[in-house]
Amino acid sequence: MEQLDENTPLFAIGVAAELAQMHPQTLRDYDRIGLVTPGRTGGKSRRYTMRNVAQLREIARLSAEGVSLEGIRRILELENQNSELAARVRDLEQALANELMNRPGARVFAAGDQGVESLARGKRPSKHTSVVLWRAR
User: Fold this and answer.
1) Alpha carbons 59 and 102: distance in angstroms, whole number
2) Which of 11, 64, 80, 114 could form a Cys-Cys staple with 48, CB 3.0–4.6 A?
3) Which InterPro entries does the UniProt record give (predicted)?
4) 3 and 64: one domain?
5) DSSP letter (8 states) at residue 123
6) Where are the alpha helices (DSSP H) in 23-68?
C-alpha cells in the first residue's frame, strides 16, 4: 500500500478549491502561471496535495496583504529552495557524523554551559549542548 504524506496527490480541483477557500478558476490560473502546480492523473485531471493546499492558503494570505503575484511566486520559490537546502544540510550532517564516528580514534565531546566533557559512545548530550567530533592525528 502506498504511504500517504503531505505530497500525495489526493484532491480534485473542486475539493482543493474548497479547502483553500478559493474559486476553482483561481486554482487553474495559478497552475497556468506556475504558482501552484498540482499533479495530474492519467486522464490529465489535476490532483492537489496537502502541501499544495497549504501553498494556496499562503498565496491568499500574501495576496490579502498586498503582495503581487510575481512577488508571491518569488517568495514561494525561495521557501521551496530553503526547504530543499535545509534537508540537504541535515543529510550531509548525518553523513559526516556517521563517517567521523566510524573512524578509528574518534572521540566525542559535548560543549555547553557547564564546560566540555567527553561522552562515551552511545551517550547523548543534553538538548542545549553542541556536539563536536574530534580525532587525534
Assistant:
1) 46
2) 11
3) DNA-bd_dom_put_sf, MerR-type_HTH_dom, MerR_fam
4) yes
5) P
6) 24-33, 50-64
Tell me the C-alpha distance between 19 and 55, whole Å: 11
Task: Tell me the residue range of the domain where 58 lies.
Answer: 1-89
Q: Which three cell numbers stand for residue 115?
A: 564546560
Residue whose grid cell is 496537502:
50
Q: Are residues 122 and 56 in the same domain?
A: no
Could you give the CA distance from residue 112 to residue 130 in angstroms, rounded to a whole number? 6
Helix (H, G, I), strand (E, B) or coil at 92: helix
- Grid-cell match 499533479, residue found: 39
Tens digits of per-residue pLDDT, 34-72?
A: 999 999 999 999 999 999 999 999 999 999 999 999 999
The β-bridge partners of 108 are 119, 133
The H-or-E segment that residue 13 falls in is: helix 13-20
Predicted TM-score (pTM) of this structure: 0.64
Q: Reduced to 3 states, what is the DSSP secondary structure of residue 90?
A: helix
